[in-house]
Specification:
With 284 residues, this protein is mostly helical. The protein has helices at residues 2-18, 20-37, 73-109, 111-126, 129-138, 144-153, 157-170, 174-181, 186-222, 234-241, 250-277. The chain has a single domain, classed as MetI-like (MetI-like fold, Orthogonal Bundle), CATH 1.10.3720. Helix 6 (144-153) crosses helix 9 (186-222). The relative contact order is 0.14.
Length: 284
């Protein structure tokens, strides 16, 4: 067990040494998460209106300027990061849990159950996510809980497909066949043997799910269907910036950069984890 753990640590170290971009993305994610957690240390309240300092450009007091209500823009971005990351992580947990459940059941039982579940996945996947999520969100009260539920409940299909493919292979392995022939219950076989084996796939898919959830939240908030005032997210900040692009372009630059870098970093983290958990195929 200790030897396997040491090999994984060495594999992570070698991957980070080989890929400098990976090191940057991990450091960036750690930094942005810490800044979001400790946003309360900012000397400026995120929702305090200051009509005397409306739309001030970046200066020594407000490093990234102020918005149309005089609120410190850096503080709003930090609190917005807290909201966007919360949406990404919680929506990922919901979608990944559904995806793992559906994929495992579908792959393990096969037959009619597999056919029914996969056709359901195909039908839902055939609907453009923007249309699907927008229509559903209209019937819910806009807000943080609604956006988490909407994204989480309609983004699990790709995870289900990946887990199903893994399960089809894993259920034919000797230790699983032995567990089934020894009289272990179906639930025990799935929980003790199938789920742990698909866990690496789950971890890799989760990072991509977080990135996708952040993008979806940003798009919906930009359209006015997501996070509502006085809360801020990076998407809602972009929406507010639309009317002031001419005289305050910085209002779009900061949240835009944060969205791009965060999504890129989570996607890159997924590539790193995939390189670590997947076996080499080139003989190295």
């Amino acid at each position: 067990m200790a030897g396997e753990k040491n090999r994984k640590i060495e594999k992570i170290k070698s991957e980070l040494k080989r890929n400098k971009t990976a090191t940057f993305t991990i450091l960036f994610l750690v930094l942005i998460i810490l800044l979001a957690i400790f946003a309360f240390l900012s000397p400026f309240p995120p929702n305090k209106v200051d009509v005397l300092n409306v739309l001030q450009g970046p200066n020594s007091k407000h490093l990234f300027g102020t918005d149309e209500l005089g609120r410190d823009y850096l503080t709003r971005a930090l609190y917005g990061g807290r909201v966007s990351l919360t949406v990404g992580i919680l929506a990922m947990l919901i979608s990944s849990s559904i995806g793992v459940l559906v994929g495992t059941v579908s792959g393990y039982f096969g037959g009619r159950i597999d056919n029914f579940l996969m056709r359901t996945v195909d039908i839902i996947s055939s609907i453009p996510w923007m249309i699907l999520v927008t229509v559903v969100s209209i019937f819910l009260t806009p807000g943080l809980k609604a956006i988490i539920l909407v994204i989480g409940l309609f983004t699990w299909m790709s995870t289900a497909r990946m887990v199903r493919a893994e399960t089809l292979s894993i259920k034919e392995r000797e230790y699983v066949l032995y567990a089934k022939s020894s009289g272990q219950s179906i639930r025990k076989v799935i929980w003790k043997h199938i789920i742990p084996a698909v866990f690496p796939t789950f971890i890799v898919a989760s990072t991509v799910s977080i990135a996708n959830a952040i993008l979806m939240e940003s798009a919906l908030s930009f359209l006015g269907l997501g996070i509502q005032q006085p809360l801020s997210s990076w998407g809602s900040m972009l929406q507010n910036a639309q009317g002031n692009l001419g005289n305050a372009p910085y209002m779009a630059i900061l949240p835009g950069l944060l969205i791009v870098l965060t999504v890129f970093s989570f996607n890159k983290l997924g590539d790193i984890l995939r390189a670590i958990v997947e076996p080499k195929t080139n003989g190295k």
